[in-house]
Write a structure and sequence with these properties.
Strand content: 15-25%
Order of helices and strands: HHEHEEHEHEEEHHEHHEEEEHEHEHHH
Structural class: alpha/beta
CATH class of the largest domain: Alpha Beta
Number of domains: 2
Shape: globular
Number of strands: 14
Bound molecules: N-sulfamoyl-L-glutamic acid, calcium ion, zinc ion
Strand order of the largest sheet: 5-6-8-7-11-14-12-13
Distance between the termini: 63 Å
Length: 448
């Protein structure tokens, strides 16, 4: 199928189920005017001038494509620079999610773009049959874990989303009500709404740590000696939007649900305040999947996460020793930086810091079968979680890309896929006291 045969799905302005957002009715009317012929006219009209990228203009609708031609990381970064989100690199062509202007930009690079086959239907989220957690079910699960394990599990709310939903987490540790002097670990998931398996991985880890406490010696030690903060759905508005569908598939939604001058949504993983928008790893177009927002932390959810990390500075010292941001679906273990191809950066990534990241990354990947690499070995990004947590606070930081073969693996795949990374999460938690242990330099860097 050629690009022009792809049917635009006009969902950017669909009203929320509770109708709280009347402005959306305006964009829905605009959307209904955007018939297929007029959408084609848009496609043929050529790209907006870069200077107009953040100016008001027609919203463009994203869908998934297969790009053939890119073979090197530089070529993948060229594709990423258009603003397209690269979803998977293991396939014979790159899977990307892109808007029409980005498709044209990719074609101008000399690559071939074809509409991806329709994704397999996802579980219908609003029906009880699904085994993916809805936002409400996630909250219920958090509440029941905390009720069942009050000594070691405590619910916290880091803040609220653009639409006012709680960004919920669980703290797991012995004497959980106390802020003890123990190495801390932060794990977040579902920053990209459609990456549905990621919340399951976070919830599974909450279950592993709490259910096996007191019986499994290794887990008991980790819970006793760490303070583990786990936030399963850090983009709740996007998650609810993605799952609220009257069809049997998800809405392929990635960003948050904050309106912008063009469309809706900021890519939270391009909105962090370290080298924000520096390097062609994000987009200034509000319709883009990788829209970086109007400024660092312009998205409420980003600010909530950053405030939480800032709040863990106690006595002038950042308490979090390890950070993990769980994504899907390319089966990768990534570490900073994403904004530069350089492995080391004077003053912000020393040879030992890089070696420790790399050594741990490879060890973790050895347990789940993923590919370990620096973030920029995939493609250049800027304003990501891990560039900020490392760049700003020297928290050892990883992004996992889980597997499953799609953003919406069948529920029957959840247990298998989640089980793959359990060991990696335990090891990552263990390393929070002194990541330099991985390179035999704990006496140099972590002496009491
Ligand atoms: O650090 C990174 O390289 C992030 C990779 C992530 C992203 O935000 O581009 N990949 S994803 O969007 O396909 N989950
Ligand atoms: Ca404790
Ligand atoms: Ca503490
Ligand atoms: Zn992602």
């Amino acid at each position: 199928m050629s690009v022009l045969e792809a049917t635009p799905q006009c969902d950017a302005g669909r009203a929320e189920p509770d109708g709280r957002y009347p402005w959306m009715n305006i964009s829905r009317r605009l959307c209904s005017l955007l018939t297929v012929p007029s959408a084609l006219a848009l496609v043929l009209a050529g790209p907006a001038a870069p200077s107009a990228a953040s100016a008001p203009g027609p919203a463009e609708t994203a869908r998934q494509y297969v790009v053939t031609g890119p073979a090197t990381v530089q070529q993948r970064s060229q594709v990423a620079r258009t603003g397209a989100a690269i979803d998977d690199v293991r396939t014979s062509g790159l899977k990307v999610t892109a808007i029409p202007s980005e498709v044209r930009a990719i074609q101008r690079l000399g690559f071939t773009v074809e509409a991806a086959p329709s994704p397999a239907p996802a579980p219908a989220p609003t029906r009880a049959a699904t085994s993916y957690h809805t936002f409400a079910e996630m909250r219920q699960e958090v509440d029941s874990v905390v009720a069942a394990h009050p000594q070691i599990a405590r619910r916290f709310v880091a803040g609220t989303s653009y639409q006012g939903r709680d960004i919920v987490g669980v703290k797991i540790s012995d004497n959980v009500a106390a802020d003890e002097n123990e190495p801390e670990v932060l794990i977040i998931a579902n920053i990209h709404a459609r990456e549905r398996l990621t919340a399951e991985q976070a919830l599974d880890y909450i279950g592993q740590l709490t259910d096996n406490y007191g019986t499994d010696g290794r887990i008991t030690d980790l819970v006793n000696e760490r303070e583990i903060w786990i936030m399963p759905m850090v983009n709740p508005d996007g998650q609810v939007y993605d799952m609220t569908s009257d069809t049997s598939s998800g809405r392929w939604w990635r960003k948050n649900r904050q309106p912008n001058s063009r469309s809706v949504g900021t890519d939270l993983n391009r909105n962090f305040a370290y080298r924000w928008g520096c390097c062609g790893g994000s987009s200034g177009n509000g319709s883009s999947q990788t829209y970086r927002g109007t400024g660092p932390e312009s998205a409420p959810e980003t600010e909530v996460l950053a405030d939480f990390v800032r709040s863990r500075v106690v006595g002038g010292k950042q308490q979090i020793g390890m950070f993990l941001d769980i994504h899907s679906e390319a089966e990768l273990v990534l570490w900073p930086f994403g904004y530069t191809y350089d492995n080391t950066v004077p003053g912000s990534m020393s040879a030992d810091e890089e070696a420790a990241h790399r050594t741990i990354g490879r060890e973790l990947a050895g347990t789940n079968g993923f590919v370990p690499q620096q973030s920029s070995d995939l493609y250049i990004t800027d304003g990501t979680t891990i560039d900020w947590t490392w760049g700003e606070y020297r928290i050892f930081s990883y992004t996992f890309e889980l597997g499953g073969g799609s953003f919406y693996p069948p529920p029957s795949a959840i247990d298998r896929e989640v089980a793959r990374s359990r060991e990696a999460l335990l090891r990552l938690t263990d390393y929070a006291d002194c990541p330099y242990r991985a390179i035999g330099k704990e006496s140099q860097y972590c002496a009491a």
